[in-house]
Structure of EamA family transporter:
Amino acid sequence: MKLDHKPALPVGRGLSYVLIAAIAWGTAGAAAAVLFDTSGLGPVALTFWRTAGGLLLLAPLLLLRARRCRRGAGRSAGSGRPLSRRVRLGRALATGMSLTVFQTAYFGAVHATGLAVATVVTLGAGPVLIALGGRLWMAERLGRGGALAVAGAVTGLAVLVLGGANGSGTVVPLGVGYALLSALGYSAMTLQARHRARAGEHVDSLGATISSFAVGAVLLLPAAMWEGLWPVSAELGDWLPMMVYLAAVPTALAYGLYFTGLVAVRAATAAVIALIEPVTAAVLAVVLLGEHLTATTVAGTTVLLTAVAALVVAESRSGAGVSRQVAGGGDRRVEVLGGAQRPVGLADREDTAPVRE
């Protein structure tokens, strides 16, 4: 039987997919800010609808893939360590809980302190917590460059928070707290994936993402009902188009593009490209939402994002992590970036700290 092999994804197209995904992720907070005003929903309910909507849009991809596998020669056996159903359920619950904290706290931060500050603090603190967690939990070597980058990120965060909280209303401490909680959930999700990859576990990135969304939707439903599950406005035109956009573009479409692009793009390159997300969020915050950024806020943001970029480079050079291909096998290990698990492709030669929501 003749097998047709599809050509590899061109690097240029892979880069464009990752870039579009990062820009799309950067619009999620702006969509949430608009929906807070038009729908009357709170952060928990809005996160529930985003998670449930993304789940409904991504789930058919599993069915489509299963149908293709049945038509073809079948899936090749991965070289990763097989897991029992109980262990897989535990993994899904742990990742889903981390994802729930990450996304809900992020929307809470956007609601409390604004889009620009919430996004920068979340995405700036996340890689720092990942680097520190990897050092403490998995004994990963941070290195001198990584340590300096972490110190720079902490300095930028301090300038952003302390300099902005001067009565101008730009930075709200409660919102910063939510953003740090979001970064904690993000880093926990990422460190779990690193640990599993180091243990030799084979993880289906699409299936793991969908299962995490399912867990998140179940966990969020009771709290969303208590907060107010249904939009206050009876006019569907006020909120439905933006709700559909939130579930479709920065959730389902962005993750799909990112999974596809990572086949051809190195992890370190993708991590740097993903820094376009907080830039996108900041531009939307100022241009569309009318948020005012003080000079101190801009300075703290610049220092923080520069340090994060340096941290990405430092980790890629040190080779921290486990994203190498298994010798002699077709298994792809999994990393998490931007709130979603993604496969590590053949182009990845080192692990790197993820940068995204």
About this structure: Residues 11-63+83-323+332-343 form one domain. The longest strand covers residues 334-337.
